[in-house]
Amino acid sequence: MPDLADLLADLDAENDVLDGLVAPLDPDGWARPTPAPGWDVAAQIGHLAFFDEKAVLAATDPDRFVAEELPAVQADPEGYMAAAVGRAHAMAVADLLAWWRDGRRAFRASFAALDPKAKVPWYGPPMSVTSKVTSRLMETWAHGQDVVDALAPLGATREPTDRLRHIAHLAVRTRGFAYTANHRALPDGDVRVELAAPSGDTWTWGDPALPDRVSGPALDFCLVMTRRRHHLDTALVADGPLAVEWLEIGQTFAGPPGEGRRPGQFA
After folding, report:
1. Which of 95, 96, 184, 200 has its CA 20 to 30 A from that of 235?
2. Cα–Cα distance for residue pair 137/163, rounded to 1 Å
3. Rounded to an integer, what distance in angstroms lies between the CA atom of residue 92 and that of residue 196?
4. How far apart are CA 118 and CA 112, in angstroms?
5. Alpha-carbon distance 151 to 7, whole Å?
6. Is 44 within 8 Å of 143 (Cβ atoms)?
7. Which residues are CB-contacts of 173 (< 8 A; sequence separation ≥ 6)?
8. DSSP letter string over 1-47?
9. What's the CA gap between 152 and 249, in Å, rounded?
10. Does pTM surpass 0.70?
11. Closest CA to 212 of 175, 168, 242, 250
12. 97-119 pLDDT, tens digit each
């Protein structure tokens, strides 16, 4: 289990990278469409700001979160998600940026004050503080990828770092959840994972003797497991039916899998 302070520092770093991409944008830049249908750059940042705000509520007033937020999302899931986009689009760019920055600072302060093993409520089962921060890092990176893809024609890039290990580990831990989210039964057997880290190290999970395995760049694995790339558009190698199926349905986030990305979209 990673140290909470180190994990929060890695989350700060992911936020800072994304901030550096969006802060210089003019209104046209904020309105650029991302690969997520119907979502522009402003919607992506608004989504992050909205759920930072909700996570702070879950950490600081869990009873209120359970009493207010859970019934609201259960009553109208699509409307609940759309609220963040609508709020973002109603704001001036400076106000949207301030909302996101204030929210992520509040997230950091709230979660740094908690026991790493403590449970906080969320939209699914309660999560440990460490797991919630890891999930937040994954969400920040994944929505940041949508922003990078939107801004790539303008020259935007983002270098992969070994912070991807948090996301890769989350993907391995949530393999069973991906089957649940896709209304499939988890098959018997496990999958070996061997990834080339940005630093040049090799990260592994699972028994080396397993016949089913996924191997390739850690970046590609994280892109596929956050559903930001189709696995056929990456350098990942899947050996065995369990490995192939996992790459088809894997996801690290809660909720329905969504459309994902089409084969050839980022060939």
Report:
1. 184
2. 9
3. 42
4. 12
5. 27
6. yes
7. none
8. ---HHHHHHHHHHHHHHHHHHHTT--HHHHT-B-SSTT-BHHHHHHH
9. 26
10. yes
11. 242
12. 999 999 999 999 999 999 999 99
Please identify which residue in the block is written with the tokens 């831990």: 173
Q: Which amino acid is at 241?
A: P
Check if the beta carbon of residue 161 is closer than 8 Å to that of residue 154. Answer: no
Q: Using one digit for the tens of pLDDT, what is the confidence trace for 203-242? A: 999 999 999 999 999 999 999 999 999 999 999 999 999 9
Pairwise CA distance, residues 254 & 250, whole Å: 11
Residue 88 Cα distances to 53, 121, 210, angstroms: 13, 25, 47
What are 124's two structure tokens?
A: 């699914």
Give the CB-side neighbour count of residue 92, counting CA atoms within 13 A.
2
Give CA separation, 255 vs 78, 119, 242, 267, in Å: 11, 20, 22, 27
